[in-house]
Write a structure and sequence with these properties.
It is a single chain. This protein starts with 7 loop residues before the first helix and ends with a helix. The relative contact order is 0.16. It is α/β, with parallel strands linked by helices and about 375 residues long. The strands form 4 sheets. Strands 1-9-8-5 form a 4-stranded mixed β-sheet. Bound molecules: pyridoxal-5'-phosphate. Pyridoxal-5'-phosphate binds next to helix 3 and helix 4.
């Protein structure tokens, strides 16, 4: 039985009629830009996740950029962030004209190393941008010791909690993505910002419509852009949001099954096999990706692929080695843990509709590979 890395059609089939009705409603209204669909989705997110204000925008990448703009981060300032994330995290900092200051990751969680982050805070630091990588919240409370604004890259972590507080409510501004493969995925691009601060929320709402005055149309207080969430996306996401808690629980259940089977097989540590930490009392993860680490990762990926099991590498290149950041002077060896993760990490199928038998099959192949049949 093939096991794809992700199967969006399986999920869609369970809610297709509701989605069709939502799309038809928007088409009938012919109101496509902001309006009640977006406003009502924003209220629904704020309420469900306990997030204060929610501001729908064009993508997770733009959410990160707008968060920094709303905090007046610009040329001359630095933002401390992880060197191991999707490109958009550091890209948003550079788009503001600011400089990303990278720190290495914690080996176990793949999230940024808090001690290193605090050590890199200096006179020019305007904000810290932790990423809740793979759906596990970073230790934001420890970063708060710097006394600076914290922008959470919660693109992979909608619904996650740390000590009972939701991702996106741990720092000053939270940034979410509705890219189709995220835990709450739209039918295209979309994103959202969260904040408890009235002034920041107002600024974000203005920035997403070219910095327009909140009451005076065609009067522009600053240069923003067109960063709106589509009404069609909002209508579709509003159908999906009530299912998010259940889908996230299914991901945690799938992760727990992987954990149990790998441990029962006695292969943890064999040929460098490491598993992600499980959710605990502090950290309720939403497992956007289930990422293991193994030596011979590339051979393992090929072995699984030949047997119909999908997997992916998040991420093959740490940010300090990206060509566009060459002027920052990063070199191989600067961030050894992130560089090891780039060589060894492998995401296995974890989507909510994944069947127990499929997990068993994936684990069986990984165990065969580790035990030598894959060589
Ligand atoms: C997906 C993602 C983004 C960007 O979101 P888009 O909606 O695709 O622009 C940013 N950061 C992280 C960590 C992501 O996973």
């Amino acid at each position: 039985m093939p096991v794809p890395l992700l199967d969006l059609r399986a999920q869609h089939a369970t809610i297709a009629a509701e989605i069709d009705a939502a799309v038809a409603r928007v088409l009938t209204s012919q109101r496509f830009i902001l309006g009640e669909e977006v406003a009502s989705f924003e209220r629904q997110v704020a309420e469900t996740l306990g997030l204060g204000h929610a501001v729908g925008v064009s993508s997770g990448s733009d959410a990160l950029y707008l968060a920094l703009r709303a905090l007046d981060v610009g040329p001359g300032s630095e933002v401390v962030t992880t060197v191991y994330s999707f490109f958009a995290t550091a890209g948003a900092i550079a788009r503001c004209g600011a400089t990303p200051v990278f720190v290495d990751i914690d080996e176990a969680t793949f999230n940024l190393d808090v001690e290193q982050a605090l050590a890199r805070v200096g006179a020019r630091t305007a904000a810290l941008m932790p990423v809740h990588l793979f759906g596990r919240c970073a230790e934001v409370e420890a970063l708060a010791e710097a006394g600076l604004p914290i922008v959470e890259d919660a693109a992979q972590a909608i619904g996650a909690r740390r000590d009972g507080v939701g991702a996106g409510a741990l720092g000053q501004i939270g940034c979410f993505s509705f890219f189709p493969s995220k835990n709450l995925g739209g039918a295209g691009d979309g994103g959202l910002l969260s904040t408890a601060d009235d002034d920041l929320a107002a600024r974000l709402r203005s920035l997403r419509v070219h910095g327009q005055h909140p009451e005076v149309r065609y009067e522009h207080l600053e240069v923003g852009g067109n960063y709106r969430l589509d009404a069609l996306q909002a209508a579709i996401l509003a159908v999906k949001l009530p299912h998010l808690t259940r889908w996230n629980q299914a991901r945690r259940d799938n992760a727990a099954r992987y954990q149990r089977l790998f441990e029962e097989a006695g292969v943890v540590g064999e040929r460098g096999l490491r598993l992600p930490p499980a959710s605990d009392a502090h950290s309720e993860d939403v497992v956007n990706q289930f990422v293991i680490a193994a030596r011979d990762r590339d051979a393992l990926k090929a072995y699984l692929g030949e047997r119909g099991v999908g997997s992916a590498i998040y991420y093959p290149q740490p940010l300090h080695l990206q060509p566009c950041f060459a002027d920052l002077g990063g070199a191989p060896g600067d961030f050894p843990r992130a560089e090891a993760a780039a060589r060894e990490s492998l995401a296995l199928p974890i989507y909510p509709e994944l069947q127990a038998a499929q997990i068993d099959e994936v684990v069986g192949y990984v165990v065969d590979f580790l035990r030598g049949q894959g060589r």
